[in-house]
Amino acid sequence: MxxxxxxxxxxxxxxxxxEHLSACLNEIxxxxxxxxxxxxxxxxxxxxxxxxxxxxxxxxNLNDELDGIDLANIxxxxxxxxxxFVTSYTDDKTxxxxxxxxxxxxxxxxxxxxxxxxxxxxxxxxxxxxxxxxITSDFIYVKKDxxxxxLSFSExxxxxANDNYCMVYTEDGRYLxxxxxxxxxxxxxxxxxxxxxxSYVINVDQIDSIGPNYIKIKGKEIPLSESSRKELMQQIxxx
Length: 239
Known about the structure:
By secondary structure, the chain is of the alpha/beta class. About 35% of the residues lie in helices and about 30% in strands.
């Protein structure tokens, strides 16, 4: 169960391991959106493409000024997306540093396709479950002028990425949040809010119709990517 986290960024400085990871991920149904060999390159990539990344697999030793653990802290603090270490380090000092970053998993090299598949599926399942269980209310507060307005999840129709901001739409208006779309949606129930495009998350209950490459909600036509369409249809069938 990929639980909607299907687009993977690989940060690994060994070309052979990059290719092995990529082949394994493709075999088990994940899409590799980038293969990067340094921390600085990864930071640049995420600044421009963070909405196209669901999870990061990263090595610890990257032969750079910063290592994978430093990068993990940046990913956690700036993007709030899940990440997993894939490394040969098993010493206590490294594991102690790594665990404080909050990874969803820690795979030790060498690994097989089966190792990767089982670790990813279990880790992502638990990650999604934790998000669901952490949502104890059915509303959020958003800033409007000089006030905080209470919005119930049920009245939100969709969310749209706007660079490092996020726009939340309802039937009555829209609200600009000072967080990225990726950081915002972790506060929303994943059983109802689904990413259908790099820039859009929709409320499943608000869908009026679904086309081959679009969704209509309250007269708004929202782009629907091919990979997201498959996930959306699977999700709808379980409702």
